[in-house]
């Protein structure tokens, strides 16, 4: 196997990765749809299994890519007189990486962790409201509507983003503007949610809060 063949293989593997990412996005949306439409818990669990399969495939692909890249770099660095069997070398590295697999690896998969976080929020919002409403409907509505208000604009959020570090949500434009303004002053941004101790909100820590957006949209339709 030649360097050109490896480059071609790497390119194909990276294409596969984009398909896995798209699949994970779709599975996340389907799972949230299922919770929102109060589908059977088994259906939601099936989507969790699908996401786990995607995350496993993603880890395997990452190991393949890393094994091939390390092999190429090693050979280029050592410059042996006779070119070794690159495929065998890469396979050895790949198997070594795979032998160290553990469930904790999935914690570094952003799409998988986003799925888990949003699903938990969605279940909490929808199922928590069920039990509260049986006790006092007014309290339930007031409590959920309070979660709809951006701590910066004090208005109902249209595009909420969630802070992965402290778990609070804000209107996307408002928090990004605050980050940008403080950046120009060379200052950090404290989480604007009252009582939160997080003092360094970064744009890279923000993810779309799909669960909250769905809840706000459904409330607006009523």
Written account of the structure:
- It is a single chain.
- The chain is mostly helical.
- It folds into two domains: 3-128, no CATH class; 160-220, 2-Layer Sandwich (Herpes Virus-1).
- It has helices spanning 3-36, 41-78, 86-98, 110-135, 137-148, 172-184, 210-221, and strands at 160-163, 169-171, 206-208.
- The protein has a three-stranded antiparallel beta sheet.
- Helix 4 (110-135) packs parallel to helix 7 (210-221).
- It is globular, with a radius of gyration of 23 Å.
- The termini are far apart.
- Mean pLDDT is 87; it is low at 131-135 and 137-143.
- One of its GO terms (cellular component) is Smc5-Smc6 complex.
Mean pLDDT rating: 87
Query: What is the ordering of alpha helices and beta strands?
Result: HHHHHEEHEH
* Number of separate helices: 7
Query: How many beta-strand segments?
Result: 3
Helical residue percent band: 55-70%
Major β-sheet annotation: 3 strands, antiparallel
Radius of gyration: 23 Å
Number of domains: 2
- Poorly predicted tracts of residues: 131-135, 137-143
Strand content: under 5%
Subcellular location: Nucleus
Family: Belongs to the NSE2 family.
Protein name: E3 SUMO-protein ligase NSE2
Keywords: Ligase, Metal-binding, Nucleus, Transferase, Ubl conjugation pathway, Zinc, Zinc-finger
In short:
This protein has 222 residues and is mostly helical. It has helices at 3-36, 41-78, 86-98, 110-135, 137-148, 172-184, 210-221, and strands spanning 160-163, 169-171, 206-208. The protein has two domains: 3-128, no CATH class; 160-220, Herpes Virus-1 (2-Layer Sandwich).
């Amino acid at each position: 196997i030649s360097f050109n063949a490896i480059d071609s293989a790497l390119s194909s593997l990276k294409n596969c990765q984009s398909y896995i990412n798209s699949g994970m996005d779709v599975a996340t949306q389907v799972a949230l749809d299922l919770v929102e439409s109060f589908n059977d818990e088994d259906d939601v669990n099936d989507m969790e299994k699908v996401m786990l399969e995607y995350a496993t495939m993603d880890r395997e692909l990452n190991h393949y890519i890393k094994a091939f890249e390390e092999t190429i770099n090693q050979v280029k660095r050592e410059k042996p007189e006779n070119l070794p069997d690159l495929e065998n070398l890469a396979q050895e590295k790949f198997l070594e990486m795979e032998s160290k697999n553990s469930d904790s690896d999935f914690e570094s998969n952003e799409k998988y962790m986003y799925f888990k976080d949003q699903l938990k929020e969605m279940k909490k919002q929808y199922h928590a409201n069920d039990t509260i409403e049986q006790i006092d409907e007014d309290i339930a509505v007031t409590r959920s509507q309070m979660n709809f208000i951006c701590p910066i604009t004090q208005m109902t959020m249209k595009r909420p983003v969630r802070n992965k570090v402290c778990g609070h949500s804000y209107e996307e434009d408002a928090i990004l503007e605050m980050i940008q303004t403080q950046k120009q002053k060379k200052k950090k941004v404290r989480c604007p949610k009252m009582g939160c101790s997080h003092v360094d909100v970064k744009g890279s820590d923000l993810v779309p809060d799909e669960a909250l957006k769905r809840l706000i949209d459904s409330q607006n339709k009523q």
